[in-house]
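Whether sequence alone determines local backbone shape is best considered at the level of individual chains. When preparing material for the folding task, we compiled for one chain both its residues and its backbone structure tokens. No coordinates are needed to read the tokens, only the vocabulary itself. For completeness, the protein is quoted in full, as a sequence line and a line of structure tokens:
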Amino acid sequence: MNVLQNILDHKRIEVGEARVALPLDELKQRLSVAPPVRPFREALHGERLAVIAEIKKASPSRGVLAEDFHPADLAREFAQHGASALSVLTDKRFFQGEHEFIHTVKSAVNLPVLRKDFIIDEYQVYESRAIGADAILLIVSALSQEMLQTFYRLARSLGLGVLVEVHSAEEVEHANAINAEMIGVNNRNLATFELSLATSVDLKRLIHKDAVTVSESGVSSSKDAALLRQAGFDAVLVGESLMTAENRGIALQQLVQA
């Protein structure tokens, strides 16, 4: 079984349990007191390459990335050193994330926050808005075209930004078909977890011209960032290389200045 399928299988169980613990109707009632949404797409659209700095404690491929893990401190450090937006892992089983990290991070900084998780059910879209996320990730390879379109429209109706993630030419077609406003190319093959920046370079030309484009995973140097900017990307999403850097602030600055 590949890594993504294993994650999705567990996520279905997790969402089922969440629906029992807090029924959808009750969850929807919480939206009325959810904090205002911060514009995510706008934060990535500028003259320079924007960096979405990712806050995550662990990953399936690397295990624990930071034993001394304090989301608020990380958010402040990333904001201070030039991040345009933040990505926060909320998956508990595989990334040791928590829903509460969204509130913690938003209370610490004014940057918009992407909820990074595996969205497979409308319940999670409402949940994302309720816990204070400003944007969500929809992974094309995890969803049918109908689900992708339905979740995308629901998220936008709730005011959430949506980063639609692709990994192949076929998946770009699916993202283009719903006219996704933000499209992210994942350089990591979610079946094998192998990395290649060539994935972004190859797929960029296929993405519709109005989309804000993000290259995700595998960006670890100013050289990588410069390559992706030259390829036409608006932003990069950087996680493991920042979380494992000896000096995270300097590492982020080097990417921002690329």
User: Anything to note?
Assistant: The radius of gyration is 17 Å. Residues 14 and 93 are 9 Å apart (CA to CA). The first strand starts at residue 50 and ends at 55. The chain has a mean pLDDT of 94.
